[in-house]
Specification:
The protein is of the alpha/beta class and 265 residues long. Helices cover 17% and strands 25% of the residues. It has a 9-stranded mixed beta sheet. A two-stranded antiparallel ribbon has the order 2-3. The chain is globular, with a radius of gyration of 20 Å.
Length: 265
Amino acid sequence: MSQSTPARRVFDLEQPRTADMPIHPAHRPGYSYTLHRRHEDGYGEDGPRSGASGLVVMKEHAGTHIDALCHQSEHQFLCGGIPIDSSVQNSAGFSQLGVETIPPLVATGVLLDVAGLKGVDALPHGYAISVDDLKSAARRQGIAIAAGNVVLVHTGNDQRWHDETGYLAGPGLHGDASRWVAEQKPLAVGADNMAWDVIGLKDEALGCTLPGHIIMLVRNGIYILENLKLGELARSGVHTFDFVCAPLKLVGATGSPVRPIALAG
C-alpha cells in the first residue's frame, strides 16, 4: 500500500494591494483599481450571462515587487558596464536588462530573522541591520547561505503595512550588510520593508543613499524583492524553504509586481 505524501506548507509572501498601501515617494501614484465594466452594463445581451472587468493603474515598484537590473545605475552605467544612451533607454523603456529578462525564480530560500534575534516583534524605525546581525541570525538558526540562494531578511516591519508613515520610516540593511550578502552570491535578496536599504541613510563609501541597490543590481546582478510579507514565515520557525517567484514579462520595464511563495515541508 502506498503512503500519501505529506502536504507542503505554503507561505504567501505578497502584501495585499490597495489604494492606501505604503508607497515610496519616488513611485507615486502607487495603485488604483476601478471597476470599469459592471454586470448590469451588458446584462441581457447574452441570455443569463453577464461579465465584469476593471482597470488597474500602478507603478512597477508599488506593493510587493521585484527590481530589474535596469532599475538602478552607477555613474550612468547599468549592470555589466552597459552605458545608458538612447539605444538602451527611451520612452518605451529599456532595450537591455528589462524585467522581462528575469527568469522565473525557483531556488532554495533562506530567512534571516533579525527581529527574532533581537527578541522584538519589529526592529525600531531607521535601524540599520549590520553584518554582525546577519551572521548572528544565521548562527542562531543554524543555517548558511549558499550561492544561488534567495536571501530574505525579516525585520518585522511588515506589521506596519497599514501605517504608511511608520512603514516608510522602518529599518533596513546597512551598506556593509549588503556588501556581505552580495559576497555570498545569492540569486536574489528581499526584505519586509520598502527599499531593502534604510531609506535616507547615506553610505559614505558610495556617497549616496540606497547603497544596496548599487551593490546588488548594478555591481553584482542580484535581484531585489521589496515589500515582502514575512511575519508568518518567521513565526513558523521555517528558515529554509523552496522559493518560487515569477515576474510579469513587462517588456522594457524596470520592475514587476510579484506574488512570491515559500514552500516548506
